[in-house]
Amino acid sequence: MQLWQNIPFLLILLPLYSASLFMVLRGRSARAAAVCVLGASCALSAVFLGCMTAFSGSFTYMMGHFPSPWGNEIRAGGLEAALAFVFSAVMLCAVGGGWRAFRRDIRQDLQNLYLVMCLLAQSALMAEIFTNDVFTGYVFLEILTVSACALISAKNNGRALTAATRYMVLNLIGSGLFLLSLSLLYGLTGHLLMPPIREAVEALDRSGAYHQPLTVVIALVTISLGIKSAMFPFHTWVPDAYSFSTPASGAILSSLISKGYILLLLKFYFRVFSLDVLLKTGIADVLFVFGAAGAVIGSAVAIRQLEISRMIAWSSVAQIGYIYMAMGLGTREGMLAAVFQMIAHTVAKALLFVSSGALCDASEGHHSFPGLRGAFYRCPAGGIGFTVGALSLLGVPLTGGMIVKIAYAGAAVNRGGMRMLILLAVLVISTAFSSVYLGRTLITLYRRSEEASPAAAAPGACRPGAALTAACLALSVLTLALGMASRPVLELLREGLSAFG
Amino acid sequence: MGNLLANYEEAAAIILFGIGFTTLLLHRNLIKKVIGFSMMDSAIYLFLAAKGYIAGRRAPIAAAGALSAADYINPIPAGLVLTGIVVSVSVTALMLALTVRLYRRYHTLDIDEITRQARREED
Amino acid sequence: MGGKANDRRGAGLREWLRAGSRLPDERMAELLGTLEKPARDPEAEEALRRETGELARLEEIRQHERALSDRAETWGRTKGLTLLRVLYACLAGIVCALVIALLLVTVARLPSFGDGTNPIHNEVSQRYIEKGREETGAVNMVAGMILDYRAFDTLGESHVLFAAVCAVMILLRLPESGGERERLLAESNDRVYEPKHDIPLQRAVGFLCPVILLFGIYILLNGHLGPGGGFSGGAVIGAGLILYLNAFGFAAAERFATLRTFRTVTFAALGFYALSKAYSFFTGANGLESGIGPGTPGAILSAGLIPWLNVAVGLTVAAVMYAFYTLFRKGEF
To answer: Chain C closest CA to A405's CA: distance in Å?
Structure first.
């Protein structure tokens, strides 16, 4: 065991420990220290990604003194390393970029607690990435749920509280169903670690015993994680939760926490049930249909929104629909496309939330499109960030979104048949819809307002902070890097996915 | 019917789960929703605890002397239930805190009514 | 002759319609003049009537639309909502019935209850039972399992509790000063309702509270030897503290239970927990000797870290339970 192989463990434990530490510290120092911890996580995960690409393979890490079927363990490979880096970087940028807005939206004495919740969410995300045990997955999933609820309700006005309540109600159903499915799965296989469960599931599949309970388990896992990650028919909590919370929360929720759940689902499909068993049950088809419907309907509803944050929230529904649609193809290539879309969307959506928050701030807090006219000139950093994010969602060349579209098209063509046609049609329709709403927003942002608004007259009043500019630039660079250096990234992900199971 | 009658404990747990699930979905009153959720979780713990039971064996507290797996029930479900209970306590507290907050603000527990008032408040 | 005049009149009318009352007065008068003069012209009269007729019809349609939308809105607010609710209830009922039926069918096909040959009674539980005492030093196999074999889950679980208490504080804590505080205090503080000097209660609690606390501490310290452990012991201690608070009031409880105490206790306990487990994970994964042995099973100071972890967990749980209660009742400590 080399020293760098301890990094996944540190990535989980460091934010977890500092979360309880920052409860004791007070004031500015705690806030600065929290951001330092997030920065350190980001740096550590970057080092880990570097080591992992050189190492190329995967390893397990015993959490304690007992080996696999008895003790807990975590596991890391290329895919996990890449996701850990992207998630840590986006978390840092979301907190940094939303800093000013959250200082304004959240009561002074609760700001430390808000950062504690961010740290807990970061730790839980890392645990979801690296876990090799389904029950650990459940426990940290609850940390994610609780911290997400706190992040939504931190703004403490009526709409945010109702949004948090609706979010909690649906997520409670999700948690209950997930725990039930774990109990059933445990009862059928007798294990909690993923590799032994996988063996037991394959043995069950071969012998044909407990076929119906196994199908129910797969369906329940899919539905429960689908509810939590805003899969299409269960997305009703999304628009309120994302748009009535502070921009940093919106970014963390839509780009990180929902992806944490999807990642866990992916782990279940690959490492617990195996793709063959999944395909036999026919649940992949349901996933495909839900994903396709979400991609079209999310985009269509986004067109009708009058406020920028709600529009972005609905576009999240569409983008998550894309992810599920690719997973529903049921092929490795489809899964690879889904993972790449997951990464590209994580970066782009965080960028959109952070930059739109900045643009609204620069326009005297207007969220509606008329109020945002000419906002680009009031806050160029936010404007550039929004443009890059929007272009990435549209799939314009040089951005991550372009590679996503290519990967999707490739996966669809290789799958062939009816699904290819449906996927391509959905891709075209959804892109057309998104070009309508994103294009309209961009035109609004770039159109100079005729009568100079007071904000434009006094540009110094709402100048974005250095943190926001840095966050927007970092996320933009990440988006462009995903588009321009896509080959090594895809290679890394493909390797990681094949090591996955 | 298969094993339904033999698995009467699991079947009871599932029925309880269903009652909780229905309560959570159907009632608009937030406190009732919390009750439904608690029932749902308790039912799952019952289900899990039933998994570990083996007829005629002892609780997993080691006696003196040599230990044989044929004497004790399975300790793993008990540990999982313990973990699960703490999680559901936390989530219940959080949900109740939200309810208290909303009730103080809007003086009602009806989630639709609360949403309507919140919307009106913003206009 | 009429055609040209008509055109002019038409243009004037259109201008008037476009600009409405914003037209300058003299222009208005001129237009009206031009309109009045040729009123005798039957052709022009016809055109005028047509235009006013169209205008009136337009207005009628608008009013009709407005009435329709009003009706739709009231319908949506009253009958529509009821209909929607009924629909939702029916749908939810069907979904629930389906879920229950499906799960019952599943249960009927599960391994049978209480059978020792079920898949879950495998080598994992066998090792926990047969080797647990020797490897972890805990007589209580469940304690050995959750605090040693699968300690990572339990670490996460105590942080769920921590996350929940932070979230409840975000929701319910009162601001330290300012007008907002006064307003929230007025609506949330229920100190006024509490009984001031309830002698029977106080006497009973004076007797019961030490017993409950002692019992909690017993459960806590005995977690590795018998039934019990950090979570149950902590919950009992928390209940004892809440009982004390109810009998003697906030003023008495505030002598020891403050936000500062809560923070210190939670941090000390959780920090110790996280650090000691991090040490154990690190040594375990890197194949190092941890230097913590299982001791003599059955002794109070045995089972390595387990009793200490139980104390840490118990303190956290007690502090969190008390914090939940006091935050719910008055939004601060």
So the answer is: 36
Q: Computed from CA positions of residues B60, B63, B66, B68, in that sequence, does the dihedral angle turn out positive or negative? A: negative
Residues from chain C contacting residue A107 (CB–CB below 8 Å): 175, 180
For C268-306, the DSSP string reads HHHHHHHHHHHHHHHHHHTT--------STTSSS-STTH
Q: Is A71 in the B-facing interface, judged by CB distances under 8 Å? A: no
Q: What is the pLDDT of residues A444-480, one digit of tens each?
A: 888 876 655 544 444 444 556 788 888 889 999 999 9
Query: Would you give the end-to-end CA distance of chain A in angstroms?
Result: 22
- Contact (CB<8Å) C105/A212: yes
Q: Range with the lowest mean pLDDT among C15-24, C267-276, C286-295? A: C15-24
- Quick check: B23 pLDDT over 60? yes
Q: Does B31 touch chain C (CB under 8 A)?
A: no
ipTM of the complex: 0.94
A409: containing domain: 285-501
Q: Residues 6 or more apart from C173 whose CB is under 8 A from it?
A: A109, A110, C327, C331, C332
Q: How far is A122 from A147, CA to CA, in rounded Å? A: 10
Q: Of B83, B91, B121, which has the smallest distance from its Cβ to A172's Cβ?
A: B91
Sign, CA dihedral B100-B101-B107-B109, equals negative
Residue spans per domain, chain C? 2-86, 139-330
The answer to the question of residue B34 being in a domain is yes
| Nearest residue of chain A to residue B97 (CA atoms) | A165
Give the minimum alpha-carbon distance from C302 to chain B in angstroms, rounded to a whole number: 14
Q: How far apart are CA A123 and CA A88, in angstroms?
A: 10
Residue A198: count other Cβ atoms within 10 Å of its Cβ.
Answer: 19
| pLDDT tens per residue, range A157-170 | 888 899 999 999 99
Query: What domain count does chain B have?
Result: 1
CB A148 within 8 A of CB A178: no
Q: Any residues with CB less than 8 A from the CB of A50 and at least 6 apart, and which?
A: none
In a domain, B1, yes or no: no
Question: In terms of Cα–Cα distance, which of A252, A460, A474 is closest to A357?
Answer: A252
> Does residue B95 belong to any structural domain of this protein?
yes
Residue A30: what residue type? A
Residue among B60, B98, B101 whose CB faces C141 most closely? B60
Q: How many domains does chain A have?
A: 1
CA-based Rg of chain B, rounded to a whole angstrom? 21
- Return the residue of A nearest to C265 by Cα: A24
Q: Do A162 and B102 touch (CB under 8 A)?
A: yes
Q: Write out the E strands in chain C.
A: none
Widest CA span of chain C, in angstroms? Answer: 123
pLDDT digits (tens, 9 = 90+) for A2-53: 888 889 999 999 999 998 888 887 777 877 888 899 999 999 999 999 998 8
B3 occurs within a structural domain: no
Q: How confident is the model at residue C300 (pLDDT cuts 50, 70, 90)?
A: confident
Chain A residues within an 8 Å CB radius of B51: 183, 186-187
The C-alpha atoms of residue A11 and residue A39 are separated, in whole angstroms, by 11
Question: At B35, which CATH number?
Answer: 1.10.287.3510
Render A210-227 in DSSP notation, one character per residue: THHHHHHHHHHHHHHHHH
Q: Looking at the partner chain, which of C153, C160, C267 has a beta carbon nearest the beta carbon of A23?
A: C267
The pLDDT tens digits for A370-381 are: 778 888 888 888
Q: Closest Cα of chain C to A374: distance in Å?
A: 30
Q: What is the pLDDT of residue A176?
A: 92
Smallest CA–CA distance from B98 into chain A, residue: A165
C25 lies within 8 A of chain A by CB:
no
